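Task card 7
Instruction: Convert sequence to structure tokens.
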Amino acid sequence: MLPKKGQTKPLAEPASFAFKKCERLLREIEFTAVLKRGKVFRRPPFQFYYLKKESGVARLGIWISKKDFKRAVDRNRLKRGTREWFRLNKKALCFPCDLIIQIGGRAFKGKAKSFDYQNAPAQLEAALREAGVLKA
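Output:
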């Protein structure tokens, strides 16, 4: 990037921490491929489905049920937090993979009111380290 008039130092290049469209699982076919051929790791309230890839970028899919989180505000808050966590930690993944994070499910039924939104990223990180997907 070129410096503005009167600036002596060039501006720093933007960091590669963006969450680009190519890093998202968007289509149903992509989700079903991970669900059918991938591995599963459960740590309530999270379930992780991941499919290792030989190369390429890691991609994220988020799955939150209306049954578990009735209010759209809660679902959107969890999705934003999960995307933000992935955006900051995608370089710490052990291997390129398609990763689906499900929040809720059978083990979580009826506990949405007591869910700790502040501690969710730390729980997510600890569970992925335990699964061997995230570097220790």
